[in-house]
Design brief:
52% strand; single chain; 4-stranded antiparallel β-sheet; 7-stranded mixed β-sheet; 0% helix; 11 strands; mainly beta; globular
Length: 122
């Protein structure tokens, strides 16, 4: 299974970006997918996740109300719409798939994308 993340970039505070993550390969089923981020000198942290069916979404407190995660099951693709971006959202964003435990626990995810840089300027 390969995950291809895209959509990062440089944006001013208050602006928006949309990240995409497409899963390909021998999946054979829909899978739970999530986003994590890691800023320089900090640990990887949970951002958002969606269940395999798309029926449930989960958000970190720091992004709830600003970020929206959606999925296209037919394409095994998830989209992270990020609005009202803040400087503290600056990080490398990683998509992940197939969690074996809690959706917010990065240790349990089986597959990872390459990361996409999001930089928010003041």
């Amino acid at each position: 299974v390969q995950l291809q993340a895209s959509g990062g970039g440089l944006v001013q505070a208050g602006g928006s970006l949309r990240l995409s993550c497409a899963a390909s390969g021998r999946i054979g089923r829909t899978i739970g997918m999530g986003w994590f981020r890691q800023a320089p000198g900090k640990e990887r942290e949970f951002v958002a996740a969606v269940s395999y069916s798309g029926g449930s979404t989960f958000y970190a407190d720091s992004v709830r109300g600003r970020f929206t995660l959606s999925r296209d099951n037919a394409e095994n693709t998830v989209y992270l719409q990020m609005n009202s971006l803040k400087r503290e959202d600056t990080a490398v964003y990683y998509c992940a798939a197939a969690p074996k435990g809690d959706y917010n626990d990065y240790v349990g995810y089986e597959y990872w994308g390459q990361g996409t840089q999001v930089t928010v300027s003041s």
